[in-house]
Design a protein that fits this description.
transmembrane helix, 18 helices, 461 residues
Amino acid sequence: MPTPPPVSGAAPAALARSLKNRHIQMIALGGAIGTGLFYGAAASIQLVGPGIILSYLIGGLAIYLILRFLGEMSTQEPVSGAFSHFAYRYWGGFAGFLSGWNYWLLYVLVSMAELSVVGLYVNYWLPDFPAWASALAVLLAVTSLNLLNVRLYGESEFWLAFIKIAAIIGMILLGGVLIARGAGGASVSNLWAHGGFLPNGAHGLLLSLVVVMFSFGGTELIGITAGEADDPRRSIPRAVNQVIWRILIFYIGALAVLVALYPWNEVGSHGSPFVLIFSRLGIPAAPDILNLVVLSAAISVYNSGMYSNGRMLYSLAEQGNAPRIFLRLSRRQVPWAGVLFSSACTLLIVIVNFLVPEGAFMRIMAVATAAAAITWMMIVLVHLRFRKAHARETLWFPAPFYPWTNYLCVAFLVGLVGLMTQLESTRPAVYVLPVWLGALYLGYRLRQRPVHAESAGGSSH
């Protein structure tokens, strides 16, 4: 198994183990409950109708299995960088390079997607305020927060995620009351009265998985936090087991209420469908409260993305797969160079929002989903190698039904990419995949060239 290359000079300071179990659970929840649910739900509902409930059950099962693979590895070896580290150690240099840089790109794209809709939520109150200015303000604020210390990040994300969860529970309860009263046409019959539970058939159900799976992106943050968890062998298994059923309850509960409150075929894509529906049901304060919640949800996911990217670049630098500057930590043990570089790259969305104020979310979402599929596939495949390497050991948190669940997930992910070719908005992202993988391989070969040259000359840094 390869080991990270030696680093000259003093060893870099380690990341601080300051994240508690409650932080880790909320970070994973916060990373997954965001724009994909509050804004992207409209696109998936148009594809599958009330069957969106079944779409989230299918997607949730696949993500749970993938999280169990990641949880097994992260509990056994709690390190920063998670799957990039495991890919590097158990598969080789290029696998680690690909996993790390692809995940970094994924979360840059997720961050862009979140920032791209911030303007829509702000425009609910300030119609004339430019979307790019809203995105820039959030970018600067979140970057500053992530430069302070990891405990403050964990605490801020805990409360941002708590706000989202409390709001979703409140919405489910309030929606249930409205459905029981039949207010504004709300009725359980909306689940089947407008073309049936699956109005577009099995084909619509399958296509909806493309948008639905974007919503589950962010759950992998459980693995990223392992390097800064104070008790990873206790907190990681608890987080994996608790997070997934909570996400399913929140997603399925919220969406069931949503499609029962209002006919699915009248849910638009201009702003959050949750805000629009409560507006049209005539509840005075609910739209403003919900708009504040969905705005905080987008900020929360972006906050998680900034955290993730700084740690992934740190891990890549440890492997020798990224410039050594990303090993630099502040006095509070924050990888400031990785945070600032990621923030600068995310700044591109401010320009996109300025040039293309409409439609930026779906374009970015498509590429992010393709990148997420690569990340999930690498987790599944690396876990197969990890398990073989630990065949004679007692595992702390073994994944169920190995290796058959691995093969099931591989088939699901291949099918997901195939389905992306069937939607006009996501098809270009599939065509970009081979180009992106080729660029990563070229980058890896160029990164290796100086190392080979030094080896031949008998010199080192």
